[in-house]
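Now for a specimen:

…
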Amino acid sequence: MECVSDTLLGQVKTLLLATDGSHFSEGALQEAFFFSQTCLAKLIVLHVVPTQSESVRAANFAVRKSQEALAPYFEHIRAMAQESSADLEIVVVGSDSPEKAVVEQARLRNADIILMGRHGKTDPLSRLVGKITTGVVAQGFPRVLVVPKEATLIGEHVLVGVNESPNGREAASVAISLSRQSKTFQKMTLISVLRKEDRREEIEKLVQNCCEQARTEGQISACEALVVVGETAQSIVAAAKERQVDMIIVGGHGKTRLTKFLLGHATENIIGQAHCPVLVVTAQEGADDQLSDSTDAKP
């Protein structure tokens, strides 16, 4: 039986929260427990200890020391789980590449989504997004939700960044799917950002077709199609703030070096500047394209 969720995230069976134990992860922690309660999903709380030593003994020692230091934090999480009757597993591992370890653990444990805070306690204040969060997003896990420290994800309005790339189309497909799985999801704004005016007509057709499909296949009361000319991140963040949306959905990095750089830079800026949680989705190889052929636009 399909679970219908009381949040915008829809149906989730297993979710993985990557945390460093700092207050920057508090928003993601609260949301993780809420999602876990909604659909009786399993919650995996993962802490990765950075280990730079080549000695296994030294690395194991670093993991043990970190576990001891975070013992009160883990007890706090266990108390929350007991109070909410959540199915909780706490995992602590060491790695010289924490961002890769997060994705490896998520795949190993069949997590549907990775939750993370926007920053970490070791990140310089000048960074929009923490290094590990950026590194996890860059690896192309299907769904990564980045939650600002004091954000919540109970609402009705979602803004979706749409373009002709596989990940841009995946963002629209995921949004339509979530609208069928969520009780609260009522309004959608689909936005495509152009660098120049010369392709407006065909991009408007793409976005309008996506919007029509959302109205037909989703369960929303309103869908807005928006095409603007400007800088991608700035335009999406501004549109989201102006409409006070509850979540932004955007596609992840591309596969080529150029698209990884361009899309990665835009995604990081959206995550870093957004007032609300940002769900980054990445199309997986072999996945069916859920958008109808009518959304096709010639390059």
Observations:
- The beta strands are 14-18, 42-50, 87-95, 113-117, 143-147, 157-161, 187-194, 222-229, 247-251, 278-281.
- The two ends are 41 Å apart (CA to CA).
- Residues 256-263, 292-299 have pLDDT under 50 and may be disordered.
- The chain has nine helices and ten strands.
